[in-house]
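Database export, one record per block. Field names are fixed; values are copied verbatim from the stored entry.
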Amino acid sequence: MSTIAVTDAGFESEVLQSDKPILVDFWAEWCGPCKQIGPVLEDVSNEMADKVTIAKVNIDENPEAPTRYGVRSIPTMLLFKGGEVAAMKIGATSKTDLTAWLNENL
């Protein structure tokens, strides 16, 4: 499984109503660190597909969700469980650190 793209219109149904934990990466096309972490998120999405869904929200195309959750810098990753934010990670990180962070918070 690879990452999924989520829009403001689908945020409620795809993220908040998800029966599985979902990591939302708030990113933008012009953001260097966002591009850096993209392949890491793809790898983690494939390796942890049974535990977590990884979604990406382009903040330029979808301004409502990042505003609602106070995203001030990107990349910002929010882990949602049961429709609530369970954890937040800001900035690009290594696959090892991201996987460890996810395992701690799932």
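Remark 1: The chain has a mean pLDDT of 96.
Remark 2: The two ends are 18 Å apart (CA to CA).
End of record.
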